[in-house]
């Protein structure tokens, strides 16, 4: 695919978006306080006009500039591979969940064994990235649902969590995106997601609080009922018997 010339030019010149001073102050404060603007990841319509290889090349060039501006010697053997390495990691790993092509395929199976209780998959480890500081958010996700007559493989639950984690994120949005996707995939309203995470932008900089973690939750359908919520929380707190 031939990339759009104007898009390519704007990306090369880095002038895709300009703030005036006032807007910048407000945006700065919103980011530091982790204020969320939209439940959808704010992507442009032309987000995937450039292919992955070209994106890696462009990000590599810009990252080299950042390192250069910091005063680092890019001819040093230890540093010279870093721009390309970071660019490749962005596209192929930690931000690969931006591209809908990387969304895990969902195969539904019939619930032959008529299991009608809640199913909980807990302690799913996830790594994401704070979209306000571009440093890691990591923690555990707990997922639960009641089957609508259909089930999906347990590993798919992990894959949905990983897919949405691999984006620049805000924890509330990440939690909601996983919840909404599970409702779609499982064809039921009866879904819950709880996420408990550490934010390196809170622990390693800013207020430097190393103890606090952030909990977000998505409760839908039957999980809006207090007794169902309480049952789920009991399972999440239960020590794994192995
Ligand atoms: Zn942050």
Description:
The chain is an alpha+beta fold and 242 residues long. The protein folds into two domains: 98 residues, GTP Cyclohydrolase I, Chain A, domain 1 (Orthogonal Bundle), CATH 1.10.286; 130 residues, 2-Layer Sandwich (GTP Cyclohydrolase I, domain 2), CATH 3.30.1130. 40% of the residues lie in helices and 19% in strands. It is built from eight helices and seven strands; from the N terminus they run ααααββββαβαβαβα. The strands form two sheets. Strands 5-2-3-6-7 form a five-stranded mixed β-sheet. The protein has a two-stranded antiparallel ribbon with strand order 1-4. Strand 2 and strand 3 form a beta hairpin. Helix 3 packs across helix 4 and helix 5 packs antiparallel against helix 6. The mean pLDDT is 90. The structure holds zinc ion. The site of zinc ion (ZN) has 6 residues, from loops.
* Structural class category: alpha+beta
- CATH homologous superfamily assignment of the largest domain: GTP cyclohydrolase I, C-terminal domain/NADPH-dependent 7-cyano-7-deazaguanine reductase, N-terminal domain
Give the H and E element order.
Answer: HHHHEEEEHEHEHEH
Strand content: 15-25%
Number of domains: 2
Q: How many strands?
A: 7
Give the uncertain stretches in residue-range form. none
Give the CATH architecture of the largest domain.
2-Layer Sandwich
Bound ligands, each once: zinc ion
Sheet with the most strands: spatial strand order = 5-2-3-6-7
- The helical percent reads 25-40%
Shape estimate: globular
What's the average pLDDT? 90
User: Given the structure, what is the number of helices?
Assistant: 8
- What gyration radius follows from the Cα positions, in whole Å? 21 Å
Just give the CATH class of the largest domain: Alpha Beta
Distance between the termini: 52 Å
CATH-defined fold name of the largest domain:
GTP Cyclohydrolase I, domain 2
Biggest beta sheet summary: 5 strands, mixed
């Amino acid at each position: 695919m031939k990339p759009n010339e104007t898009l390519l030019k704007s990306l090369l010149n880095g002038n895709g978006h300009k703030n005036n001073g006032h807007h910048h102050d407000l945006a700065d404060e919103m980011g530091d306080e982790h204020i969320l603007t939209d439940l959808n990841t704010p992507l442009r319509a032309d987000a995937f006009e450039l292919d992955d290889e070209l994106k890696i090349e462009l990000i590599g060039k810009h990252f080299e500039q950042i390192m250069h501006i910091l005063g680092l010697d890019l001819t040093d053997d230890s540093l010279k591979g870093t721009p390309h390495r970071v660019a490749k990691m962005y596209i192929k790993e930690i931000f690969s969940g931006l591209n809908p092509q990387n969304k895990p395929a969902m195969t539904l199976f019939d619930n032959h064994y008529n299991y009608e209780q809640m199913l909980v998959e807990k302690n799913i480890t996830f790594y994401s990235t704070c979209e306000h500081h571009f440093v890691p958010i990591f923690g555990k996700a707990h997922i639960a649902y009641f089957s609508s007559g259909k089930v999906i493989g347990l590993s798919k639950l992990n894959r949905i969590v990983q897919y949405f984690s691999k984006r620049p994120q805000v924890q509330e949005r990440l939690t909601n995106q996983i919840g909404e996707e599970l409702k779609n995939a499982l064809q039921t309203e009866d879904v819950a997601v709880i996420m408990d995470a550490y934010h390196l932008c809170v622990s390693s900089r800013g207020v430097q609080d190393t103890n606090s973690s952030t909990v977000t939750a998505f409760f839908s359908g039957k999980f809006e009922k207090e007794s169902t919520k309480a049952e789920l929380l009991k399972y999440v707190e239960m020590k794994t018997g192995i």
